[in-house]
Design goal:
This protein has about 325 residues and is of the alpha/beta class. It has 14 helices and eight strands. α11 runs antiparallel to α12 and α11 runs antiparallel to α14.
């Protein structure tokens, strides 16, 4: 999710626990071979064994439409040691689609197959190659055809966002259509889209037939969502699914860590906006985040936010290490 789930938020959310792995923001490939520094800037986990601070492996994602250029860049990227290469056929943004990337390619199943095949041949056999798709561009009539094309090209795993490009992020997500895709492919399928709480996760599993889930905006809004799903899977009694798995006082140290990373790793002009962006998501789950957002939304001086953090989040920084679960962050 470009501009949201970058390496900073990946770091913090994986400290909260509950994820098997992450997928990076997409790395846009046009007509050049990108240098190693570009991959490392977008996926700095490559400099640390391909894992986040909490030890969660990161799969690097490429976006483009030229099979040969994508293959060359995948080979370059693979040499840096990610825990797999993912190919983006799901981004619905017009600025991406009009240049022949993301979900726009779902009108061309043959091209999907050629892209995956070229990338699969270009990287070591031991390195996983996966793909993410939507149900289609304007409708879902070619969803199964696209999924088969990705499988036939050599994708070892498929994430399906249960909406079309035209649907964008408007609810609902059509989870039952993922079950139709599962029925025709022989590779693992992971369900994605509109999973905001444990009840959504259970309903998605029921309708899609997928046990594994990819969490995006739902995890940003509720950093304990993956933990809550895992707690349900373990059959823990007394779990209140209406309350966040990570209470606000426990989230504050993670917010402190987040702000520290933002202050040290991002350009000063972007710093205040990044904290307000996350609070804007959190306020849909935490009443305290709504209050914090209202206090900070007019601030554009990082030092003023430094003072707010020191006053409101004085707890010792350092979130819990991630544990195994069925969820991924995209």
């Amino acid at each position: 999710m470009e501009g949201l789930l970058d390496f900073v938020l990946r770091d913090i959310l994986t400290r909260s626990g509950g994820m098997d792995r992450c997928v990076s923001e997409f790395i846009r490939v046009t007509n050049t071979l990108l240098p190693a520094r570009t991959f490392e800037r977008i996926v700095p986990e490559l400099l640390h064994g391909g894992r986040t601070f909490a030890g969660v492996p990161v799969r690097a994602q490429l976006l483009g439409s030229d099979p040969y250029c994508l293959a060359d860049n995948a080979a370059q990227l693979a040499a840096l040691g990610p825990h797999g290469i993912d190919l983006n056929f799901g981004c619905p943004a017009n600025v991406v689609n009009r240049h022949g990337g993301g979900a726009a390619l779902l009108d061309e199943p043959e091209l999907l197959m050629r892209i995956v095949s070229a990338v699969r041949r270009a990287v070591p056999a031991s390195m996983p190659v996966s793909a993410k798709m939507r149900l289609g561009v304007r409708d879902d009539s070619r969803a199964e055809e696209c999924a088969l094309a990705l499988q036939d090209g050599g994708a070892e795993e498929l994430v399906v966002h249960a909406r079309t490009k035209a649907d964008a992020y408007r609810p609902p997500a059509y989870w039952a259509r993922i079950a139709d895709i599962c029925a025709v492919v022989n590779i693992p399928v992971i369900a994605n889209g509109e999973i905001w709480n444990v009840e959504d996760a259970l309903r998605c599993r029921e309708l899609s037939g997928c046990q594994s889930l990819m969490l995006g905006r739902g995890m940003v809004t509720d950093p304990g969502l993956a933990l809550a799903i895992r707690a349900h899977d373990r059959g823990e009694r007394g779990v209140d699914n209406t309350a966040p798995q990570i209470a606000w006082p426990s989230l504050l140290p993670l917010m402190t860590d987040f702000w520290h990373l933002v202050r040290t790793r991002l350009d000063r002009k972007k710093q205040c906006g990044r904290l307000k962006q996350w609070l804007n998501f959190l306020r849909h789950r935490y009443p305290q985040a709504q209050e914090a957002y209202l206090q900070l939304r007019t601030l554009n001086d990082p030092q003023a936010i430094d003072r707010w953090i020191a006053q409101h989040a004085p707890a010792e920084a350092g979130g819990a290490a991630a544990t195994q679960t069925v969820a991924s962050v995209a």
